[in-house]
Amino acid sequence: xxxxxxxxxSIVDAIDTTDVIVDVSWEKFSGNWKAFQDDFxxxxxxxxxxxxxxxxxxxxxxxxERLINHVRGTKLKLEFDGWTNVWLTTVELVNAFxxxxxxxILIAHLDTYHEMSELRKxxxxxxxxxxxxxxxxxxxxxxxxxxxxxxxxxxKLITANTGYYECKTRIGKxxxxxxxxxxxxxxxxxxxxxxxxxxxxxxxxxxx
Length: 208
Fold this sequence. Notes:
This protein is α+β, with helices and mostly antiparallel strands. The protein has helices spanning about 10-15, 35-45, 60-70, 80-100, 130-135, 185-190; strands at about 55-60, 105, 110-115, 120-125, 145-150, 150-160, 180.
């Protein structure tokens, strides 16, 4: 599920080969939150996600903005009950994703919340306390770090708490602090199954 406009531009090759199937209709989502809920719940009931190795939301931050707009309606701002509704709906949806019969990846943007003594800390960019509490629901919490190297921009996944980033892993007892951003390789390193599921419709990815 792509909520971030233009967020799929970096994976066009994987989309072209059908390694990744993307629903971009939510990038121009105008506020009908119920349509998204109905789509997700319908796919859960039909067994749609049984055929996938991984399901992803990009991003949880933008998705939550759509939910806030839905709950707020025509009001200029949310009252206490409205924020409670947003929080409970978000937790319910995240729990539903984590219970899917496949891996779940929920991407979120980061925000700073502590900058004293030059120690800047980060949390998920989410409304209210969600940015601090939601990570507790996950087995793995990684941050993608980009740094300039002699050969260009290098990207690594941070897998443990650094003081700046509150990351964690439950399966990666032998993970390094920084790992290559390859989830299949990380599953293999942790001793977990890492092979792909059969392509939908056949080996060539076409519908049959």
